[in-house]
Structures are given as structure tokens and as C-alpha cells.
Design brief:
single chain; 70 residues; mainly alpha; 2 helices; rod-shaped
Length: 70
């Protein structure tokens, strides 16, 4: 991903890419990946907690336990 972007940059500028350019592109790429990963983990966590709380509510009502609030 970053290598192809660097290659395009080399063609556009007609000179070799600098290390700073490569590092900036790499950091940007990694930041985008980390952001997507965090969003995916947040969705999984929310889905898991919603599912888990729903199961506990079913368990409590089946056992005749009083309702509890979080």
C-alpha cells in the first residue's frame, strides 16, 4: 500500500522519494488502520455487552429475581 503510493510519488515528482515522505505515508497508513481497528473493537464490545445484558435479564426473569439496575 505505502510502496505503491511512494512509487506514484516518484513518478509524479520525477525524483527519488525522501525518507521523511516514506515515514509520513507509513504513519498515515498505520493511523488509518488503527482507527478502523478501534472502531471495530468498539462495535464488538457494544454488541457483546448488549447481548450479555439481554441474557442476564432473561436469566433473572426466569429465576424470579427482582429487576436490577446498572
Amino acid at each position: 500500500m505505502v510502496s505503491s503510493a511512494l512509487e506514484l510519488h516518484r513518478y509524479a515528482t520525477d525524483r527519488e522519494s525522501r525518507v521523511v515522505t516514506a515515514m509520513t505515508m507509513l504513519k498515515s497508513h498505520l493511523f488509518r488502520r488503527a482507527t478502523r481497528l478501534c472502531r471495530a473493537l468498539a462495535v464488538l464490545w457494544l454488541t457483546h455487552n448488549k447481548c450479555r445484558s439481554g441474557l442476564w435479564d432473561l436469566w433473572d426473569s426466569a429465576a424470579g429475581a427482582p429487576e436490577h439496575t446498572l
